[in-house]
Design a protein that fits this description.
The protein is mainly alpha-helical. It is built from eight helices and two strands; from the N terminus they run αααααααββα. The longest helix is centred in the N-terminal third of the chain and has 16 residues. The protein is globular, with a radius of gyration of 25 Å.
């Protein structure tokens, strides 16, 4: 196929705007392949790479090779002030910087390293984790670093609202449906699995206990984890068949402290008392009210 380009307009006295337009046009035509198409790199900010690592960590499928490859790219995009931007040449963005920071921590970068220390200092100066966007806080809730109680909630049953209803998912863009509907299900289950490290350095004053957001009770101490097992939730099979087991990488956990939610009260426990099961007190520091998981959450679900 032969592509014939129109003749270049001369640089007449049409003015700077016309000359700039002509240069831009000539540049684009110069990038066109002989077959008539253009080829270019589809690039986005580092949140895509960071969230990919976070998802792999949550699912338990993250590999060393994948982690190091993503970490090299994320680190290469860091600005001199320790931040990450949403677009080339843009200003540092708080949420993007927090997600990139956590991803590099997953890759083994230490918080004392100069590049992460600069990032953490900037994050705290911008308000820390409480000032991040809701999507960033949802990612953190998946790891017990933010309370599900302090996130916006919509019931997944909203998918049953018909198209004629004033508020229905079918009026949304396809990207909004596939994002929000999935998040309503996640928000209903409130899963959480602990990170291998804490993020206290990303909170203003370095202490999440001093803030009313991200938690719903002053008894919460900021981060509480447990590694004991629990049965996987069961989902109804299509067509009314036998139920299928959903194999999560971690048991269903309380959105407050990432501790597994048990099916019944442990022996010797009651609401308002610390669980007395072996090891509970040591692994669930600060859990003082609910026997369900040993934490102080005030809105545990029983699904």
């Amino acid at each position: 196929m032969t592509v014939t380009h129109p003749s270049r307009l001369g640089r007449s006295a049409a003015g700077p705007a016309a000359e700039a337009l002509a240069r831009a046009r000539d540049h684009l035509l110069g990038l066109q392949h002989d077959q008539g198409w253009w080829q270019g790199e589809l690039e986005t900010n580092v949140t895509m790479d960071a969230e990919d690592l976070l998802l792999r960590e949550f699912l338990g499928v993250r590999t060393t090779e994948q982690t190091q490859a993503a970490a090299r790219w994320i680190a290469s995009q860091q600005r001199d002030d320790g931040t990450w931007a949403n677009f080339y040449g843009g200003p540092g963005d708080l949420s993007t910087t927090v997600e990139a920071y956590v991803a590099l921590r997953l890759a083994g970068h230490e918080p004392q390293a100069p590049h992460l220390a600069r990032a953490a200092e900037w994050i705290r100066g911008q308000g820390g984790i409480p000032a991040t966007r809701v999507f960033t806080r949802i990612w953190l809730a998946l790891f017990g670093e933010w309370s599900w109680d302090d996130l916006p909630v919509m019931p997944p049953e909203l998918i049953y609202l018909p198209a004629w209803f004033p508020f229905n998912v079918y009026d949304w863009g396809c990207w909004a449906r596939q994002t929000i509907v999935a998040l309503t299900i996640v928000g209903s289950f409130r899963p959480a699995t602990p990170l291998p490290f804490g993020l206290k350095e990303l909170w203003p004053e370095g202490d999440p206990k001093s803030f009313a957001v991200g938690r719903s009770s002053a008894a919460w101490t900021g981060r509480c984890t447990s590694t004991s097992g629990a049965a996987a939730p069961r989902l109804p099979a299509p067509g009314g068949g036998s139920a299928a087991t959903l194999p999560p990488p971690e048991p269903r956990r309380c959105g407050r402290c990432a501790a597994p939610r048990s099916a019944g009260a442990p022996s010797g426990s009651s609401p308002g008392r610390r669980p007395t099961a072996a090891g509970a007190a040591s692994s669930r520091r600060g859990c003082t009210r609910w026997w369900h998981c040993g934490c102080s959450a005030t809105a545990l679900t029983t699904r």
